[in-house]
Amino acid sequence: MKPPQKRRISLARVKLQSNTAFRMNVLFFTIFLLFSILILRLGFLQIVKGEDYARAIARTEEVPVNTSVPRGRIFDSEGRIQVGNTPVNAITYTAMQTTKREEMMIVARELARLIEKDDNKVTLRDKQDFYIQLNTESATKKVTDKEKEAIAAQDIPEKEKQQALDALIREKITDKELASLSAEDLEVLAIYREMTSGYALTPQMIKNEGVTDEEFARVSERLTDPKLKGVNTVTDWKRVKSSDLTILGSTTTPETGIPATKLDYYLARDYSRNDRVGTSFLEQQYEAVLQGQKSVVKNVTDGQGSVIETLPVDEGKAGKDLVLSIDSELQSELEKIVENKLLQLKAGPSSKLVKDAYLVMMDPQTGEVLSMVGKRLGEDENGNQAVYDYAFGTFTASHEMGSTVKGATLLTGYSEGAVELNEVQIDEPLKFASTPQKNSVFNTQLFNRIPISDLMAIERSSNVYMFKIALKIAGAEYQYNRGLYIAPESFATMRNSFAQFGLGVKTGIDLPNEATGYMGGTSPGPKLLDLAIGQFDTYTPLQLAQYISTIANDGYRMEPHVVKEIREASRDGEHLGPIETIIEPKTLNRINNTQEEIEQVQTGMRNVYIGSSGSARAQFSDAPYSAAGKTGTAEVYFYEKDHEMNGEYAINIAHVGYAPYENPEIAYAVVIPYVTTDPNNVPKANNEIARAAADKYFELKNKEAQAASNVIKEPYSDSVVVEGE
Q: Cα(154)–Cα(156) distance, rounded to whole angstroms?
């Protein structure tokens, strides 16, 4: 029986209501899920990613601006200015992101009416582009339709097609047409090229040399003129050195800007293309310290992207100052000693090859470099003999150092069990097959046998004693006129031991481009014996100074450094700023020897100065202070390609020492390469420089002590070296 019609309608209505309620629940649940996801997403963006997005906004709105903050200054150990900044008037231009080239040209023409600008930097390409810009229609017509079609038919990107077309237009600009550019046009061009040489929102230096007071005033009073939009008058800085000491380094100028080879490196660190950067030595090594912090501004733009307001976010800071361990008075006095001796040597006999002389003095207990002297003979612009600073040669030029390294050889012998304390060896000329006789200077007669102890071997500079140490390390026995085989491992043993003193490895000096010297290989013949007396591998004067410092400092090798403090910029211009960082002494290693063994070598070096057979007795026996050291002579061959004396036999001389003997304050190394070509008449200039340098140190030290202060002092030298000159 079928249900009544009324009942069927009621059931259908209930079913419909049930379906509607289910659908509404699904809809509300979906909405709830969507809102939950939205809330979670908003929370994630705001809480988790909020700082990242804020930084991203800051990167687009907050722009570092070069406000010519002064670069950090460099002072000597006594607070004397070595490198500073001189303020100069300057005129800049800053383009906005929406600035058009036509607007720049208007500004350039107006600015040309107010200032004088040299056009000596304007290139042919600049003139061609400028002519095309002034005569666009006629210049473009120089290219025929056929030529345009040929370029368009090339299978290259559209950008390259346009470049090819532009290049063709330039080629068709004649010299006569370029000559039609007036002097006024070229002045406008000179200004315009500076305006377009950088990025938007980055001030470009239009003129910072020779800006007269009148020019500065004329531009300043019209800064609100719409025709000079983007132009500003500022105080710029020129880097000025009060010393010609090369290790102070150099910087670029705003005109040269960042070197192309390091452009990406500096741009990634928020530099501008026309920023000054250090290009050598201390200026380069401490670039991050010396470079000031630019001001940061926020640009507020309208709907069209035009900047309507610039708000300061962070004020700029001047760069930090460096205080050196070098005393400029001591440096200057030691330079005079070396320079005078070098000129004296050059005026003497057999001196055609001598041209350099070096002296390094450091504190063996702290590693502070007290003086770095390098002098090189050359010619001035008139062809006359001149002496130039070559201080960087103390750590970039290497030479055979001769017997100065015998202290390292003896200590290596002790540590390798090749010799014992106070052991006596027989000094006798050695003859190996197919090689010249090898002997000590004081014992040249074959089969002449002289008993000699380790102390006397240092004092008299016995080559043979060192030869026999090397033979023992190599496990080889000497037999008259027989061949000699040395395993490569023996060279490694000697060199690894020498490296403990700083010989043949980087010293760690806080200057770039330090050399390690030349390693002479692993010849199977008697070259190991040459290595033992400093006539195979080469070392720098700084390595030699670190080596003698290690012996003076009871075996502890200290890292040398020329910067002892980093300070905040001066607050009043009269006193050094607060100390930010003190460069603490850094011990690199201790040599593998006992204290007794080190003291034995120290005694031998003391005898070099005061012993009856000491090789430096004549220069140091009457010194008013106690000192110790070692002299060195190396037989070498001059090598300089295309030089008329290439391959000539010559002599290097060197000297290492320290004082006072009981508690060393200074360690010093002197090197004069190719001092003579006459082995029978070798000058003692190395010993004489060493004595004069030590005397000068103690003389200056014993001056009436002044109370310590942070007062900035005038330079010791009258030298003035201006950036870019």
A: 6
The string of pLDDT tens digits covering residues 544-553 is 999 999 999 9
| Six token digits for residue 141 | 């017509």
Distance CA(618)–CA(630), nearest Å, equals: 13
Neighbours of 430 (CB within 10 A): 23
The H or E element that residue 295 is part of is strand 295-301
Give 599: exposed, middle or buried? Use CB within 10 Å, 0-12, 13-18, 19+: middle
- Cα separation, 428 vs 435, in Å, equals 16
Cβ-in-10-Å burial (0-12, 13-18, 19+) of 124 comes to exposed
Half-sphere exposure of 44 (CA within 13 A, CB side): 6
pLDDT in the model for residue 464: 97
Q: How does DSSP classify residue 320?
A: P
What pLDDT is recorded for position 62?
52
Ranges of residues in the chain whose predicted pLDDT is under 70: 1-18, 45, 48-50, 52-68, 296-313, 704-708, 724-725
User: Side by side, which strands form the sheet with 385-389?
Assistant: 385-389, 369-379, 356-362, 666-676, 649-659, 628-637
With the C-alpha atoms ordered 28, 33, 34, 38, is the resulting torsion angle positive or negative?
positive
How many CB atoms neighbour CB 295 within 10 A? 17
**Which positions ≥6 away from 295 have C-beta within 8 Å?**
64, 65, 67, 69, 312, 314, 315, 316
**What's CA 266's distance to the chain center, in Å?**
15
DSSP state, residue 174: -
Mind telling me the catalytic residues? 403
**Nearest residue to 542 (alpha-carbon basis) of 376, 341, 396, 441:** 396
How much is the pLDDT for 454? Answer: 97
Nearest to 672 by CA among 689, 659, 658: 689
Token readout for 491 is 């060279």
Question: How far from chain centre, in Å, is Cα 556?
Answer: 26
- Given a contact cutoff of 8 angstroms between Cβ atoms, the answer to whether 227 and 704 are in contact is no
Q: What separation in angstroms does the CA of 159 have from each of 128, 154, 166?
A: 20, 12, 11
**DSSP-assigned letters across all residues of 229-252:** TTEEEEEEEEEEESS--GGG--B-
In 69-113, where does DSSP find H-type helix? 101-112
pLDDT of residue 414: 98
Residue 157: asked if its preceding bond is cis (omega within 30°), the reply is no
Q: How many CB atoms lie within 10 A of CB 293?
A: 16
φ, ψ dihedrals at 234, nearest 5° = -135, 170
Identify the CA nearest to 370 among candidates 345, 407, 335, 320: 335
Distance of CA 131 to the CA centre of its chain: 43
Give tens-digit pLDDT for 273-315.
878 899 999 999 999 999 988 776 666 665 555 555 666 667 7
Q: HEC profile for 450-505?
A: EEEEHHHHHHCCCHHHHHHHHHHHHCCCCCCCECCCCCHHHHHHHHHHHHCCCCCC
Show the tokens assigned to 23: 């659908």
- What's the one-letter identity of residue 81? I
Q: How crowded is residue 386: how many other Cβ atoms within 10 Å of its Cβ?
A: 12
In angstroms, the CA 609 to CA 632 distance is 13
- Token pair in block for residue 601: 């070598």
| Nearest CA among 595, 590, 389, 408 for reference residue 493 | 408
Answer yes or no: are the C-beta atoms of 414 and 597 closer than 8 Å: yes
Q: Which amino acid is at 319?
A: G
Within 13 Å, how many C-alpha atoms sit on residue 11's CB side? 6
pLDDT at 7: 62
Helix, coil or strand: residue 674? strand
